[in-house]
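Treating backbone geometry as a discrete language has practical consequences that deserve illustration. In the encoding step, the backbone of a single protein was reduced to a row of integers, each denoting a local shape. The amino acid sequence and the backbone structure tokens for this protein are reproduced below.
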Amino acid sequence: MISFSNLTKKRVNTKIFKGLGSKIFNEEFELSVVFAPPSLMLALNKRYLNKNKPANVLSFLLERWRGEIFLNTGLPRRGKAGEKKLPYLFVHGALHLLGFNHRGSNDTKKMENRALKILNLK
């Protein structure tokens, strides 16, 4: 089950996120997706990662079958290789909930390849 909260004034079509979520998670997984302004993304990034800039995406695994993804709606919708698009960031955050990371170049490559497959870009 996926629930959405939009804490911004921007309109967000959640249909694509529902579709992507069903490709990534099984029915038992409870996912909360929050569309957040840059100010909240900055506050969360400071609090949890000790970084003084707004995050693009933050993921929190709350329990084995429950997690949250916060998406920064203040970013440009397009960017290098589409990395600023919200669907890409959603998939990136979802993969973190599944245990993917980008600590090394091999991990980064695996995570990127998986994201592109989910988005049907590879």
In short: The chain is about 40% helix and 20% strand. The radius of gyration is 14 Å.
